[in-house]
# Entry
Amino acid sequence: MEFDAAVLRHIGEPLAIERVSAGDLQPGDVLVRIQASGLCHTDLEVMQGSLRYPLPIVLGHEGAGVVERIGSAVRHVAVGDHVVCSWKPHCGDCYYCDRAQPILCEPFKTHQPQGHLLDGTSRLSLNGRELFHFSVVSSHAQYCIVPESGAIRVPREMPFDRACLIGCGVMTGVGAVSRLARVEAGSSVAVIGCGAVGLNAIQAAALEEAAVVLAVDIDPKKLEMARVFGATHCVLAGEDPAGMAQSLTAGRGADYVFECAGGEPAMQLMYDLARPGGYTVMLGKVDVNKRVSLRFGSMMGEKTSIRSSYGGARPRRDFPWLCDLYLRGKLKLDELITLRLPLARINDGFEAMARGDVVRAVLMMEH
# Structure
């Protein structure tokens, strides 16, 4: 079959909308007719060259749509099901999957960086030559082919443009708070960086009934958004956030700190804000080959630290849960979407992202 997709051919160049081909489904494959796809900063990192993948490639890993066809071995979804794509599918049989750590799935770790699905091959081609997948999803296209574990059934009542956000930013932020750190009611929380992931960490902390939710950012407009999502206090990064955290906690520092900004200053601030015995979660990142220097003393005091990419996600458990929270009015998703646009305007969306003008831009796919 053939369909339209946004293809990155060269680093630093705009994406091109091209007609691409998909091969036959393998037994464990699911073909999804994409209805909405969120633009994520990780996509932009590939376009800019700080996150390296083989080219040409179809980006996108926040996708939602309808199951069009399934392979012969697929059991968990059926044709016509509404699904959200997970960018961390797993095989279910490797060393880590057997030890209840599917986030570390070995076939994913081996084949995903090479632009392939879990079996080490691509289903996509462009003008007769191999075209690579991104994060085993490639949702910036009219269709995508994913493994069964990457197609998560969700309620039909869930709007596609909001459903797609669950696949990455929402899951990561909410999951870090509710699944990894397991924030306790009445506790103090600090969140560094109020983009899509940070805002979801903030609203999760509010949902868990934290007494203090301190938002930190360099942009006053983002702090305004943080209040909408449940922050009880806000401070600019240059205005002594550590001092504010201490003033709100009898001089101790925050019980839980979530770093959602990326970069060495934010990572250092994470430790500076945490109390002795506190819990820190690093969700931001830098170039994978870059060294990061942190003040060792700030890490002392029996602090627990974890670096997470997906907030402890178990997609089959968590995606329906997040949809249910939204449908019951407990999870804010509408407020995350700054811009909706067609596939043909995808570069406009990434330009707006690079300027910092959007929380999330969402592609609304036409068929």
In short: Residues 160-181 form the longest helix (22 residues).
